[in-house]
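The following block was generated as part of the benchmark described in Methods. Ligand: iron/sulfur cluster.
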Amino acid sequence: MKYLNKLFNNISEEDWQSWEWQLKHSFRSIKELHALGLHESLTDVEDKYPFCLSPYYLSLIDELNYGDPIYKMSIPSIYEIAPAIYNEPDPFEEQKHSPIPGIINRYKNRVVLLATNLCAVNCRHCTRKNTLKNIETHDYFDAIFEYLVEHTEIREVLVSGGDPLMLSDEKLDWLLGNIKKNEHIKVIRIGTRIPTTLPMRVTHELAKTLAKHSPVWISTHFNSPKELTEEAKTACARLVDAGLPIVNQTVLLKDVNDDINILKNLFNGLQETRIKPYYAFLGDPVQGTEQFYVSIEDALMLENKLRKEISGLCMPAFVADVADQGSKIPIRDLMTVATEQPNNKE
Ligand code: SF4
């Protein structure tokens, strides 16, 4: 928060708690952060990858350097375009598994629906960082709804993006209503980082709108205990109180959370917030994210230590996404499966 005074004068509490104010004042170029002393020329990075940062998420940074976990997850760096071993823009071939724009179908009875390409913060470790700019969401919902009607084997739809909670309440109501019109679709899951990056967006009205279409599960993405602020906890409480169960997917990230005490605090904190830690993912081998990779060996060591330290309810499954495996793979089984995993080659 101490840095914000250099960027804004006298922000009222009312403005700060308004998600519209936050979006209006979000940063979309590193130049806008020059007042903070960030003068590194990152034009090449910004040309290649999207950048957006909410004032709220910026306020969680304690130190303006790469050692700060929030800084590392949100401020562009030259490492994103440095030569890397893994240079796949789309390692899971989501484009190949996309029968129509906006649908990814990698599994038999569930699909991913890309509702928008917008996010409150463009995470530097994002799996879709190479494809987000390509998602065109204008006027393609008719074809998506038709696809859902025709594919009666689909039981569950994961609404993703970008971040679907960037859409207005009205648009979400319309979207979820159209999905749930199909009797064969029993469950909607919403993948979102909004409770972490722009928690004030989770108003009572939004929670009520989502709950209208229950069962709707919320899948959050908290990576650091620093993200579990009072604002974030309030946002999650609103969702749970409205009848929306929450599970959390954490990505293991080097120098962000590859530490037993950090993970312990994170997973315990999530449980105290009524969020079930669901998955701890090994980072995907995506172009532009190698600086975040945690090795399989380190991930296994963290899993084994953690199991002795926290209750089963706090313990997520440690898994990796591996192309064409049909499901997530436990990290402990990975030595035999994923010979292509990045840090395995070190
Ligand atoms: S909010 Fe999700 S989709 Fe958006 S940049 Fe972050 S990880 Fe990627």
